[in-house]
Amino acid sequence: MRVLALSPGPLAQQLDRLPALVSLCEQVGATLQVACAPACRGAWDLVPQVEKILPFDFEAAPTLADWANLLGCVREPDFQVCLNFAEGRQVNLMLSMSHIPTRIASSGFSSTEIVSPGEGWCAQRLASVLKPLGCDLDADRFRLALSSTDLDAARAEQPAGEGPMLLLAPAGSTVDWPEQRWRSLPEAIAQRLKGLRTLQLNPDLPINRRAAAVASADVVLSSCPVSQKLAIYSGVPLVALGAEPQDLPDRPDIRCLGTPGNLSALADDEVLQALGF
Question: Which of 9, 89, 211, 224 could form a disulfide bond with 171, CB atoms 3.0-4.6 angstroms apart?
Answer without folding.
Answer: 224
